[in-house]
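Pasting as-is:
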Amino acid sequence: MHSVIELEDRLRRRYRQPKGVEQFGIEPVPSELKTVGWFDIFSIIFGFALNPGSMLVGGLAVVSGLSFVGAVGAITCGVLLATIAYTITATIGVDFGLPGQVSTRMAYGLRGAKWVPSFLRTIASTYWFAYQTMAGALAVVAILDRWTGTAHSLVMVSVIFAVLQAVVAIIGYDSLKHLSRMALPFKIVILSLILVLLATHDDPHFAPWAVWHYAGKPGSGWLLFVTWMNVVAAGTLTMVTDSADFCRYTRSRRDMWWGTLLGKVGGGCFAALLVAYGAAATLGKTANVFAVASNLGVGHFMLLLFLIVIALDNWTINVLNLYTGGLSLSNMFERLGRFWTTAIISLGILLSATPSVVTGYTTYVGMLGNVFAPIAGVLIADYLFVKKLKIDLVALFEPNGPYWYWNGVNPIAVAWTVLGFLAYMFVIPAEWIKALMTVIATGAGYWATTQLLAPHSAALGRAARPGDQREAIEDLDWELAVR
């Protein structure tokens, strides 16, 4: 057994990382560092929901034709559906201290995990970083234009935003935890003030009763409702492979469950309520609630509060996006430490100068959800029903071990991911909530195929019965650090 300080020093020298940043990348976190409680998880997750990017979705849903109640309901239901899958995979972080991408090796194989879930998650993290940055820049520009009476460059504001976020992101988990806790009360209070400002405006369309009864566009019904519920669920499912990243410092499952459930569902509902309110009050003409609020004759102090909450949003949220992207890249390129892979992911700054990352939201998120829904199905079925909540930690880093499958790849997991993607695209009707049905169908197919073939395949049989971990987490950490 070795001290945490000694282990962190070995990792720092191995990866040539600076002092003062998080040293753990693909390595499991030792139990001494698992001190995070439910409120910190809640602060991270709830704060993530209260950001310009996620809040813009509620406005877009109303602009597309949904009623106020329909938009809030679709978004909340979509978040709730995805949270079930998210919480299951987050349990791996609590129990084993693993980042999510490393845990995918048990289903896809040591090599397969690198080039399927990790590669795709790296792309998703880069997109979300750019999307959140551009969405925040849209809100900032709207406020600055109103404040100064002159036009500001959207691209310039977005790039400056992105650079500042990238500088903070590489510090690591502690920065995310402390920033989230600090920012949360400010964000809740300021966003609540915006809601009060909208509800008390003298325009009768802004009255709570009028907004509640806003019916949306004629002809918008179940299909549009399900479409937005599916978009939100698909977007949340893109994080299912890294939900463990935020929970591997958590002290218990109970803390993770409460923090995640309250944060995701509560935050998603509050964000949808606020932004859908602004869109419904303008009769479906404006999706950006900050643009709506800044045009209500507010003074400079209120505009300053808007800028503060947007800055806090992007500062905390994109630390999270870059953090998970860096861990994904670390799983692909093990010789690079978390610090350096996060710095590489920060090159997503270039995408932050592209407004189409916001205007094409449903297209991009739909494409990502098409892939991550079957990935979630495979991972959940493998962990719950094949591995039965047991992971051999040594095997996750052991060439030719139980999780090596065939040349480092589990072709059954890859095949069902492809089949699930095709089913999502061409088979499952939109009315059936495609993301949910894809998770269920893919997971069931993967489980059934594994059960059928495992008795006849030594590779599958060995992976399906990992047994208990062979070494203590602390010993495994040390083994990884010095290898």
